[in-house]
Amino acid sequence: MGNFSMYVEMIRIRFLMMLAYRTNYYSGILIYSINIGAYYFLWQAIYGTQESIQGMSVSQMTTYVAIAWMARAFYFNNIDREISQEIQDGKVAVEMIRPYHYLGVKTMQGLGEGLFRLLFFSVPGMIIIWLAFPIDFSNQWSVWALFFLSIIFSFIVNTQLNLITGILTFFLMYNTGLIRAKRVVIDLFSGLLLPISFYPLWAQDVMGYLPFQAISYIPSMIFTGGFVGSEIYSAIGIQIFWSVLLIIPIQALWMLAKRQLIVQGG
Amino acid sequence: MNVIEVEGLRKEFKSYSSRSGLKGAFRDLFTRNYKTLRAVDDISLHVKQGEMVGYIGENGAGKSTTIKMLTGILTPTAGNVTVNGMNPHKEREKFVRTIGVVFGQRSQLWWDIAVQESFRLLKKVYKVSDEEYETHMKEVIRTLEIEPLLDKPVRKLSLGQRMRCELAAALIHNPPLLFLDEPTIGLDVLVKMKIRGFLKEINRKYKTTILLTTHDLADIEALCDRVVLLDEGKIIYDGRLDELQKNWVEGKQVHFEFQHPVDKPALEEISREYPVIWRQGERVNQWVATIDGEDDTVSKLMSVVMLHHAISDVKLNKVSTEEIIRNIYEEGIKHG
Ligand SMILES: Nc1ncnc2c1ncn2[C@@H]1O[C@H](COP(=O)(O)OP(=O)(O)OP(=O)(O)O)[C@@H](O)[C@H]1O
Ligand SMILES: [Mg+2]
C-alpha cells in the first residue's frame, strides 16, 4: 500500500466528482425514501395485529428496513460497471503506466463514493426517517461501534464482489447482464429486502455458505438488536472470513486478466 | 548506457474470424478460425540518453504497438526489452515512475474534474515533493501557457488545450524518458509550434530522452535528428533525417498545372529522354515531375512539356521530406 496520501487524494477526488453530479444524488435520496416508505407500510400490513414474526417486533422490523437501506448507501457502489466500461474502452491498459494497483485505486474510489453518501445522504436521511417513522435507536454506544465496524466489512465484501464481476469483463467482454444479475442477487440474498431469518430453513442453510449475508443482514441485525452478545462477534467473524477468502479469486482473476490485456485503438 | 534496448521484439495479434450462418456459429463454439497478424516484426532498437527519436510509418505500421510494449502496457510475443535498465513488466511499479507517456488519442486526465485536481492527484501518485513540484511544474505550466486552464474540467477543454495539459501531466515527475504517441494530432500550427518548442526546451534542460510518433513530418524536422521508419512491423530505416534526404532522390520537383486534362502516358512519351517520374498532383490537371539531374535537364524538361501542352502554372521545388517519405511508403526503400 505504502502511499497513503495518494489514496486519501483518490477519495477526495471521488467526493468532488460526486459533487459535480449532484442530480444523481438527489434522485438517489428520492428512490431510497420511496423504498423505505413502501417497505414500512408493507411490513405494517404483514404484521397486522401480530406482536412479532420470527422473533422480530414490528418496530424492530421498521428499524431493520431503514438501517438496511441507509447502510446500502454506504456499501453500494458502481465500480463493477466502471471497471467493465474501462476494460471495454481500453482505459485499464493505460492505467498500467501508473505506479499503483488498479484494483486498489478502484476500491478507494468506491470508498470515496460510500463516504460521500454516508455523510450527505444516510445521516440526514436517517434524521428525517427518525422523525417520520417509529424507529428504535440503540442507546448503547457499543452497538453503534459494532454496527460501524460491521458496515466496513459490508463495504469490503460488496466491493470485492464488484471487483470480481468487473474483472470478469476481460473474459466475457459484454457483461452488463451479469452485473445486473449480481445486483439483484445481492439485494435478495444479502437480507436487504427480507431478513435471512424469514427465508425457509433450507434457503437459510444455502445462504449460510454464501458471502451475501455479510453485506446487509449482519450489520442490520446488529443495529436492531437482533443479534446479541457472542452472536455479534461470530457474525463479524463471518464477515472477516469472507473479506479474507475473497482476496484469492480476485488475485487469481487479476493475474489472468493482465495477460489478456489488450488496448483497443490508438 | 542505452536508455532503450530492444532486441528482436515481436508482437502478434490473434484475430478471430467468425464463420457465417447458424451452422458456422455453432462450429465457432468448438473450433475458431483465427489469423495471426505480426504488428511488430523482430525489431531491434537502441536509444541513447538525450536523443530525440522520431518513430514514423504508415497507419497500421506498428508504432503504437511498439510504444505499448516499451511502456509495459502490452506483453511482447518475443524479444527482449530493457528500458531505463528495467524490464517494463517485471518491475512495473518501479519502472513506470521513470517514464512519461502521452497518447494523443486517449486522455489520461480525469474527465470530470478540474485539471489542477488531476495534477494534484498525480503529484501524490508519483510522490513528488512540494519543492520539486513548485520549481519544475511552475515552469512547465508557464511554458505551455496552461495557467488559465487549470481550474476547468477536462471535458470542457478544446483538443489543443487538453493536449497541452496532457503533456504537462506526463511531466509531473520529471521523467528522464518520454514516450509521445501522436502528441500533435489534430492541433493547429501555433499549438504545434508551442509544443515543439517546449519539447526542445526540456530536452535541452534535463537531457530528457524522447521517442515520438507523428504523421506530421514537420514535427520530426523540427525536433529529431534521428528517425526510425517502420513499415509493416519492420524497421526499414534508422538514421539521420538528413541522410535519408540525401540518400533518396536528390533532385527537383516541377509542379505543372495544365489547362486541359493530360494523361500519364502522354507525359511519359514526351519526356522519354529525361530521368523523370510523373505523379498526379493534388489538384485537377496538376502533375508533378521528379527529376534526378542537372539544372540544365530541368529547364529542358520544362520547355519540352510547355511545347506540347498549354499550362496555367509551373512551380519548381526541392524534394520535400514529405515527398521522400511518401515515396518510401509507396515504393519501399529499394532506391539507393
Ligand atoms: N488489439 C489489437 N488486436 C488486433 N490487432 C491489433 C490490435 N492493436 C493493433 N492491431 C493491429 O496491429 C497493427 C499495428 O497497429 P498500431 O496501432 O501499432 O499501428 P500504428 O503504427 O500506431 O498506426 P497509426 O499511425 O494508425 O496509429 C495494425 O494492423 C492493427 O490492426
Ligand atoms: Mg498509432
TrEMBL record, chain B:
Keywords, comma-separated and alphabetical: ATP-binding, Nucleotide-binding, Transport
Domain of life: Bacteria
Gene Ontology MF terms: ATP binding
Coiled coil: none
Keyword Transport: yes
ABC transporter domain span: 24-257
Keyword Nucleotide-binding among record annotations: yes
One Pfam family cited in the UniProt record for this chain: ABC_tran
Transmembrane segments annotated in the record for this chain: none
Name the record gives this protein: ATP-binding cassette domain-containing protein
